Amino acid sequence: MKAFLLNLDRRVIFVFVALGIVIPSLAPVRMPIPITKDVQAIYDTIEDVGAKNGTVLISFDYGPSAKPEVQPMALSVLRHCFRNQIKVIGMSHIPTSVGLAQRAFETAAKEYGAQYGEDYTFLGFKPGGGSLVINMGSDFHGAFQKDLRGSDTAELSVTKNIRGLADFAYVICLASGNTPDGLWIPYGQERYKFKFGLGCTAVMAPDQYPYLQSGQMNGMMGGLAGAAEYETLINASGKATAGMGAQSFVHLIIICFIVLGNVMFFLYGRQKGGAQ
Amino acid sequence: MLFLRRTLPLIIAFVMGVIGILCFYIPHSAAESLELELTKWDRIVAAFALVLGIYSLMRLHWTRVRRQNPGWGYSFLVFVGFAIMTLFAIYNDGQGPLNPQEIDTGPFVWMYNNVQVPADATMFSILAFFIASAAYRTFRARTPEAAILLVSAIIVMIGRVPIGAAIYHALPDLAQWMMDVPNLAAKRGILLGVSLGAVATALRIIFGIERSYLGGGEE
């Protein structure tokens, strides 16, 4: 037994992790989801934007690999915006996110009867990174002359009154890379002083706290837990809320293995110069 | 040739770097117009860089296929995938390459939704299994610092998921405090160091001290 635990086959751990995912997914365990202040801040800002008839810009900066974590955020934010009759403009710094953004728009617009061109549009991907953000800041129609469907942004109802980034009541970046702290904050928020919120993968979240404290970012959804919090706030349980059971149990399983590994290390491993 | 390969790029980097810095600090319409113009140029260059990136990727994998390096079959698949998606993009669900890209239906959209999205998401999801295995083997309280890290990680891991609140009501608040205070302090310190390093590197590039971006080809 001692030898088995000291040299635990990785496949045993894989089986436990798989069971921790599959069982709560098949037999959902509903637990109350506590709301953090950073997620609440995004929700409150969108409520405020709705009251003032503002327009929201969403930058879809994540690829398919981050879909399980970030796509529920995109759907929740779009649902919240369309429910409050907020106009939404989407764009992307990453080419592989275009299809995901398109699907999120279609799903949410269908649910709330939002009309393309009147209530929302998607501009698609453009290269340029920081330069694109600076262009959008001073000449929005110049940066995106046409949207993804080929409509002229200077004539489209939802975009015609937007001159630059400062005209947006709120800018939200949904990211799985360095676009929030690498592009949107230094080239956008710092220069044009718009309100900025972030939805990102869990591994990115700890890096963003300096921007939250400085006020350059007013709210953040981090990982699947952040997405589940937002779903709870808008009373629309989706894939993120459903995934919380699996995530909770897998975290517990990993912690149990870490504790077991340390117990074995202190009991036997140190005598042999460290566990294997 | 030395002028074109080294001197001219150094002059361009110096001039553009200095103009970029000056434009940022001069709140005048002329400086803003110049900056706007330069950023448009930058976006055009970035679009060409995509083409260069594709060329570089293809050349790398072609070399692997030609030399039949270990795993060359995967490199061959890069060409298959690239060719299929390019053909589907040109086909554009029967509308041809001159019309706006069809974004709702067609084989290009089908391949994206049914091959790329699930494949990418699966690759990323597999990380959970490897992280669990790696955590069991390496996450050991060998030193007091490692023990602090271990306890912090456990508190954050359990405090960020709903079961944390079910186990102990104060765990989410404790996890949030760890992110807001110790994590923030460490991240800000790292960020300041990285930013100062970035400024130093930018100045070295502008003044031609750092030249590695010119490449190391024969002169």
List keywords for this structure.
heterodimer; A: 276 residues; alpha/beta; Rossmann fold; 6 strands
What does this structure look like?
The complex is a heterodimer of chains A (276) and B (219). Chain A has 276 residues and is α/β, with parallel strands linked by helices. Chain A contains eleven helices and six strands. Chain A folds into two domains: 37-237, MTH777-like (Rossmann fold), CATH 3.40.50.10160; 241-276. Chain A has helices spanning 2-6, 10-26, 37-51, 67-83, 98-112, 130-138, 140-143, 179-192, 209-214, 223-233, 239-267, and strands spanning 55-61, 87-92, 120-125, 170-175, 196-200, 219-222. In chain A, α2 runs antiparallel to α11 and α6 packs parallel to α8 (179-192). The mean pLDDT of chain A is 93. The termini of chain B are close together. The chains are: A alpha/beta (276), B mainly alpha (219). Chains A and B meet through α2, α5, α6, α9 and α10 of A and α2, α4, α5, α6 and α7 of B.
In short:
Chain A is α/β, with parallel strands linked by helices.
Topology summary:
The complex is a heterodimer of chains A (276) and B (219).
Chain A: H1 2-6, H2 10-26, H3 37-51, E1 55-61, H4 67-83, E2 87-92, H5 98-112, E3 120-125, H6 130-138, H7 140-143, E4 170-175, H8 179-192, E5 196-200, H9 209-214, E6 219-222, H10 223-233, H11 239-267
Parallel strand pairs in A: 1-2, 1-4, 2-3, 4-5, 5-6
Helix pairs in contact in A: 2-11, 4-5, 4-10, 6-8, 10-11
Chain B: H1 2-25, H2 29-67, H3 72-91, H4 107-125, H5 127-138, H6 144-159, H7 162-167, H8 171-206
Helix pairs in contact in B: 1-2, 1-8, 2-3, 6-8
Q: Based on the structure, what is the oligomeric state of the protein chains?
A: heterodimer
Say how many strands of chain A there are: 6
Average pLDDT, all residues of chain B: 91
Write down the domain tally of chain A. 2
Spans of chain A of at least 5 consecutive residues whose pLDDT stays below 50 are none
User: From the alpha-carbon coordinates, what is the Rg of chain A to the nearest angstrom?
Assistant: 22 Å
pLDDT < 50 runs, ≥5 residues of chain B: none
Percentage of helical residues of chain A?
40-55%
Strand content of chain A: 5-15%
